[in-house]
Write a structure and sequence with these properties.
single chain; 534 residues; mainly alpha; Rossmann fold; 4 domains; three-stranded antiparallel β-sheet; 21 helices
Length: 534
């Protein structure tokens, strides 16, 4: 079981859920639930809908208590709009269930819903998220909810009364069930008559088609969302299910669902924390309806699964946070590695221990880890400087950390390489000069020439990251007559900055670049001496 602390939100919810389950259904398997609509890319904000109950369900299972995490695919929802980049002719499918819409052009999947489910399913497997999936298309079309639909229709006046308290305008002839047209397949239908005795339902469609069916036998339609959700709480016996902040406004599905589940379906509303938005560095909020948003699969290309899990585990659901796709990912990895060192030194707080433990393993066991985790920013610099050349990369890592095989640095190395390839701007890429900048070398003064000679003379003393760090910071100190341990003064800092800028111009042709010790290590001593003219 994970270590517990005052701010360990997962353990607190697990306590509440177990206690509530004992009151509602003692001895039965505890049900935690999530719901995702595969209407478009399932982004990193949607991932919180999955990770929150996953972490709670996993904690419950760690305690030896039977618990299942249900994931409902809302693939029987209507297709609402054609996203940017998709052929406008897909507009003819608006109103059809997502599983009845052809997949986007070029896709190999059976339909629109399966196309967007697939990358999320792969990402969840990599993240160690174990859940039981439910297709709402299968549930509705198989007749699994038939009795619940008939009950909701019988109780439509009661449902309408609950909903009307939050409406600004009253609705005539409210009906909680929406048929999909048998001719055009869309939900552009209007129920025109219903007989409670026979369950005969008449509807017309905007396409001009109309028919009368027996609802007791009809499986081509679904309950409207504000009724569908509480119906499922009761049907599945859900004890815990989070929801986004947009579901907690007055009149929202969560608010009215709490009454409908009790008054109509005889169930109880789950424990349901509200979760805040997840952003990307430089973005306030994500919306899959706008199309191109980063997904869990995108994040897992540039970071290891435990690090992504950690971002969700360490923040309470109501706290918003951002995921870095820019240079901030280096700072994120620095924090992650620093936490690992704190844990090894026995200095981590209980909540930190718990979040880390939940990041690196699940109730089923540990997630894959990098055997020799070189700092991410160092790997990114190496990948940038070497342009991914395997032999050069191995040479640098051997010099740096004694690594004899690139697999020892994987998968972190691969993630850093992918970040460089896809997220490092072209104007920040490092290209080591092929030949010395003779014009710059000829313009240098005696002090600058002396500094370069001192650097060249010290390259072989300690060819390591620490040794090169001491060397590049120490040259300006020695020129100023200071010891290597001297505290930096404003004058010394200015001298160091000037020296660093000179080295960058000589090595890569600009004033900045990767950390100098890493750059020197990557370039190699002989080539450094050639480029600095010594």
């Amino acid at each position: 079981m994970a270590a517990r602390g005052e701010n360990d939100w997962v353990s607190k919810f697990a306590d509440e859920v177990i206690s509530e389950a004992e009151r509602r259904a003692p001895g039965e398997t505890i049900v935690c639930a999530s719901g995702l609509s595969p209407s478009g890319p399932i982004h990193l904000g949607n991932l919180r809908e999955v990770m929150t109950p996953h972490l709670v369900a996993d904690e419950i299972r760690r305690r030896g208590v039977a618990c299942v995490h249900l994931l409902s695919w809302d693939d029987y929802d209507r297709f609402r709009r054609v996203p940017a980049g998709v052929d406008p002719s897909w507009a003819e499918h608006i109103g059809k269930p997502l599983t009845s819409v052809p997949a986007p052009p070029g896709s190999t999947h059976a339909n629109w819903a399966e196309h967007f489910k697939a990358p999320m399913i792969e990402a969840m497997a990599e993240l160690g998220v174990r859940c039981r999936t439910i297709s709402q298309t299968e549930q509705y079309t198989s007749g699994a909810y038939r009795e619940q639909i008939l009950l909701a229709v019988r109780e439509r006046a009661r449902i309408d009364a609950v909903l009307s308290r939050h409406r600004s305008k009253q609705v005539e002839d409210y009906f909680p069930y929406k048929p999909y047209c048998d001719l055009c397949g869309r939900d552009l239908t209007t129920v025109t008559a219903y007989d409670d005795e026979t369950t005969e339902l008449a509807y017309t469609c905007e396409c001009g088609f109309g028919e009368t069916v027996r609802l007791a036998e009809h499986d081509r339609g679904k309950l409207v969302w504000k009724v569908d959700w509480p119906m499922r709480w009761a049907y599945e016996g859900v004890i815990f299910e989070p929801s986004g902040v947009d579901h907690h406004s007055p009149g929202s599905a969560w608010t009215v669902g709490g009454r409908i589940v009790t008054e109509v379906f005889g169930g109880r509303q789950p424990i349901g924390p509200m979760y805040a938005f997840v952003g990307i560095t430089g973005m306030a909020k994500m919306s899959s309806s706008k199309g191109d948003v980063p997904t869990p699969a995108d994040a897992l290309e540039i970071m290891e699964a435990p690090v992504l899990r950690w971002l969700y585990a360490r923040r309470r659901p109501a706290q918003s946070f951002k995921i870095a796709f820019d240079q901030e990912i280096h700072r994120l990895y620095d924090e992650w590695d620093a936490l690992g060192r704190k844990i090894e030194a026995g200095q981590a707080q209980p909540a930190e221990l718990a979040a880390h433990d939940r990041a690196v393993r699940t109730a089923e066991g540990p997630l894959p880890a990098t055997p020799r985790p070189v700092p991410y920013r160092t790997l990114a610099s190496i990948a940038d400087i070497t342009t991914g050349h395997a032999e050069q990369t191995l040479r640098i890592l051997r010099d740096l950390d004694g690594i004899g095989d690139l697999d020892e640095a994987r998968p972190r190395l691969d993630r850093a390489q992918r970040w460089v390839d896809t997220h490092l701007p072209a104007d920040q890429r490092t290209r080591v000069r092929e030949s010395p900048d003779q014009e710059l070398l000829d313009s240098l003064g005696p002090g600058e020439r002396e500094a370069l000679r001192m650097l060249a003379d010290g390259l072989d003393d300690d060819w390591s990251l620490d040794g090169l760090t001491t060397l590049v910071y120490g040259v300006p100190k020695r020129q100023a007559g200071l010891t290597p341990e001297a505290e930096p003064t404003p004058e010394l800092k200015a001298a160091q900055r000037a020296f660093f800028a000179l080295l960058y111009r000589l090595l890569v042709g600009r004033d900045t670049g990767p950390r100098l010790p890493t750059l020197l290590l990557a370039v190699g001593a002989d080539r450094v001496r050639k480029l600095i003219g010594t």
